[in-house]
Design the sequence.
């Protein structure tokens, strides 16, 4: 697309588009970025800059446009730093932040968490600034606290995906506290459920961390979801419980939790907010992951293959599911098939921004290295050497 063609779509002249490309003032205006995002059919968050300094500028401009109206970005930043700036926060501002939560979830499933940590962290700072310095009604304040809890959970997840586990734990803890302060059981369940998965995976995803506590967290999340959540949230929390039981080797408890997850997913009771994200691929993948951990390899293979097939529109999620499937095949003794699967998809997987994914692939490479005499293993190891 030429500068003239893009300009025609957003009603900018060619010199103005050139100014955008060079990082001119308009490139920091959310109104302009939104026009560009629509013209290019990409999420707005993908145009957000990554450095801390530039992200701060972006956050100020977001506030200037979305919450303040005509106030200047520099003046707003100075007033906010003194703690005396009264931002008038309304329902539309809460909805904008809610949309950002959904964008972060979607982008993580598509490209991975590494490139999203700064964007997400600055969104959390935005919510904190609005809560601390803003003026709003009681109902708007409660909604802002709830959506802030969900933003913290989303931010925790992208930090988890990028291998920053300590930061993820802190965001999940903050999210649970914010959810409790807002009286939001849905947001509390989401934060506790994600914390459960972090504890189950541990530091390297090869051994569970604090499995007994993980079960307690998962059960607390399931109770909160049962009271207030819709079908997807109840199903997701049941899967988290199944994963925690699998990490402890509790086959019967895991199976019961999986059964509850299926019943919840097919239910029509309750309502899930848009940011409760559980596509079919993630549902099947969670079930398959738990079955893999417990050693039920045939059932795990069936569910993980179905999950991979259902994840066509989510490249990072599909890559993660393929590594789970490969791990399950290795555990079942089919090293050749596992390596054939990984080698065939290495080009796509290596281009994703997920430290956690790359570590998992590296761990699999170390596991199969002793089988280097097998041609499929040699091909996979060669791909790892050139692409990772």
Sequence:
């Amino acid at each position: 697309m030429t500068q003239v063609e893009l300009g025609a779509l957003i009603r900018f002249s060619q010199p103005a588009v050139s100014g955008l490309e060079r990082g001119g003032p308009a490139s920091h205006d959310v109104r302009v970025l939104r026009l560009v995002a629509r013209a290019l059919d990409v999420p707005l968050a993908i145009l957000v800059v990554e450095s801390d300094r530039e992200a701060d500028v972006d956050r100020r401009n977001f506030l200037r446009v979305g919450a303040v109206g005509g106030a200047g970005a520099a003046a707003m930043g100075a007033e906010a730093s003194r703690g005396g700036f009264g931002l008038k926060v309304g329902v539309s501002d809460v909805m904008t932040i809610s949309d950002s939560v959904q964008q972060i979830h979607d982008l993580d499933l598509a490209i991975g968490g590494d490139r999203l940590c700064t964007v997400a962290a600055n969104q959390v700072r935005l919510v904190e600034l609005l809560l601390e310095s803003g003026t709003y009604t009681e109902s708007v304040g409660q909604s802002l606290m709830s959506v802030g809890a969900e933003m913290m959970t989303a931010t925790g997840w992208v930090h988890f995906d990028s291998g920053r586990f300590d930061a993820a734990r802190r965001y999940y803890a903050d999210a649970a506290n914010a959810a409790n302060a807002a009286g939001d059981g849905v947001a509390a369940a989401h934060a506790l459920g994600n914390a459960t998965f972090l504890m189950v995976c541990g530091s390297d995803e090869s051994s569970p961390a604090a499995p007994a506590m993980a079960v307690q967290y998962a059960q607390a999340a399931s109770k909160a979801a049962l009271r207030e959540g819709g079908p997807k949230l109840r199903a997701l929390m049941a899967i988290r419980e199944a994963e925690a039981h699998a990490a402890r080797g509790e086959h019967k408890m895991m199976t019961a939790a999986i059964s509850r997850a299926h019943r919840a997913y097919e239910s029509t009771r309750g309502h899930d907010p848009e940011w409760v994200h559980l596509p079919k691929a993630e549902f099947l993948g969670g079930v398959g992951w738990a079955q893999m951990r417990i050693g039920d390899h045939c059932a795990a293979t069936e569910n993980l293959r179905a999950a991979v097939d259902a994840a066509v529109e989510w490249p990072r999620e599909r890559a993660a599911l393929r590594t789970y499937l490969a791990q399950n095949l290795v555990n079942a003794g089919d090293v050749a098939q596992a390596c054939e699967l990984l080698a065939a998809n290495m080009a796509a997987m290596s281009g994703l921004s997920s430290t956690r994914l790359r570590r998992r692939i590296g761990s699999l490479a170390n596991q199969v290295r002793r089988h280097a005499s097998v041609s499929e293993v040699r091909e996979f190891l060669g791909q790892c050497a050139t692409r990772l």
Observations:
- Strands lie at 87-88, 134-135.
